[in-house]
Design a protein that fits this description.
427 residues; alpha/beta; six-stranded mixed beta sheet; 8 strands; 51% helix; 9% strand; flat
Length: 427
């Protein structure tokens, strides 16, 4: 039994929370299937009165609150939440429908100052902020697992390896905008927050045992304090298969088709891929069809597509075809940092040597600390440091540069000496 599993077993027997006391850890036998929430499936909260009762119950609860959200990725436009799940000691579990209750700011305010437990927090926080919920402090069980060196950090894998339970994950990719939500989906959703508090407590003890708890706290604070990501510039450039498109006129076709598709998808509230696939956009850009007949022969524009749809895609191609040269997109987006590392050997061989040495040093450090390299220090931070290193390669100047790129104090403390040595060796 690992220390984390022993911790989970201690929690079950000493706090009365979590799974029944007679459950063994995953190392003592096969994982125990978790089939039903402790208090059964809670009713879905979809009106103001029911929401007010949940707010009062969770405000009166004690300890941290487990939070999760379900989206309809691949089905609906955007990344809005279609179900919010919570659990807190003294309040039990709650399932809230953000369609019926689109403003959860009262619940967010009631939980101000309470630690939120999320798994992969950066995935759920944007959609939670949209409905008025944002944590002042949090504990991310996925990130905690990474820092603790777990090889698999999905929620099911973590619950199994740490607590000895098996979660059924078959409904993770369903269309959560479906109404009414089927009972098996609601059971799955409630179980997602059933053990988060237990998992958090076990991981906290494991991180403390490894001397990494302060590292985790700094990471969690950075996530909670991070502002919302700004809108992506030229999102059409991320069309899958874009690397095949070389000419500016072809890029204009991609842009026109992408923007037309996005407007239609937003109006219909469906995933853009259901309107027109990325592969079809690229095919039209490469072929530059002269008319609807030619367009309809391309992959993605076949017999199932009606004449009206073909006309709207052809109109987008025609708009790109007549654009003046001055309005055509440039070959690549303006980079906000160093060029791609694959070009460094030609553009700046000294920088390429620095990057190779720095990566080797970071890799060795991460292996010794039993955590992923990207969690020890962000790869982009290493690239920026190597592309434009301080004139004076000493601990204070390198540490200052790392801090300027967003590295946390614990990261700076761990990597500075190794990076100074690596950079100095290539000077």
């Amino acid at each position: 039994m690992t220390d984390a599993q022993e911790t989970a077993a201690d929690l079950r027997t000493t706090t009365g929370g979590g799974p029944p006391d007679d459950v063994v850890s995953s190392s003592d036998g096969p994982p125990i299937p978790l089939l039903e929430p402790r208090e059964g499936i809670p009713p879905v909260v979809a009106d103001a009165d029911a929401l007010a009762r949940v707010v009062a119950a969770f405000a009166a609860g004690t300890g941290p609150v487990a939070v999760d959200a379900e989206r309809a990725s691949g089905y609906r436009y955007g990344q809005r939440a279609y179900l919010v799940q919570l659990r807190r000691e003294g309040a039990g579990s709650a399932l809230i429908d953000p369609v019926g209750c689109p403003d959860l700011s009262a619940l967010g305010e009631a939980l101000t100052g309470t630690e939120w437990i999320l798994h992969a927090a950066t995935q759920d926080l944007p959609c939670l902020r949209e409905i008025g919920m944002a944590p002042t402090s949090l504990f991310d069980t996925e990130l905690a697992g990474r820092l603790a060196g777990f090889p698999r950090v999905g929620l099911g894998a973590m619950v199994e390896s740490v607590l000895g339970y098996a979660l059924e994950k078959g409904h993770s990719a369903v269309d959560w905008s479906t109404r009414p939500l089927p009972e098996p989906w609601l059971r799955y959703a409630a179980l997602d927050v059933e053990l988060l508090v237990d998992l958090r407590d076990a991981l906290e003890k494991e991180l403390d045992r490894q001397g990494k708890l302060e590292w985790a706290r700094q990471e969690f604070d950075a996530i909670a304090a991070a502002p919302p990501a700004p809108p992506r510039k030229d999102p059409w450039r991320r069309t899958s298969g874009m690397h095949k498109v070389r000419r500016r006129r072809q890029m204009a076709v991609v842009r026109e088709l992408w923007e037309s598709r996005d407007r239609i998808a937003q109006r219909r509230d469906v995933s853009p891929g259901k309107v027109l696939g990325d592969a079809a956009i690229v095919e039209a850009a490469l072929a530059l069809p002269a008319n609807v007949h030619t367009l309809s022969a391309l992959p993605g524009y076949g017999q199932r597509m009606g004449r009206r749809q073909l006309d709207q895609w052809m109109a987008a191609v025609d708009r790109a075809r007549v654009l003046p040269e001055s309005e055509l997109p440039q070959p690549g987006a303006t980079p906000s940092g160093p060029p791609p590392p694959r070009s460094w050997a030609d553009k700046d061989p000294a920088a390429a040597a620095r990057l190779s040495a720095a990566r080797t040093a970071v890799s060795a450090l991460a292996e010794g600390l039993n955590l992923p390299q990207e969690n020890l220090i962000a790869p982009d931070t290493v690239r920026r440091l190597c592309w434009e290193p301080p004139q004076r390669l000493e601990a204070d100047t390198v540490a200052t540069a790392l801090a300027g790129y967003g590295a946390r104090p614990w990261q700076i403390e761990q990597v500075t000496a190794a990076l100074v040595t690596a950079l100095a060796a290539t000077a």
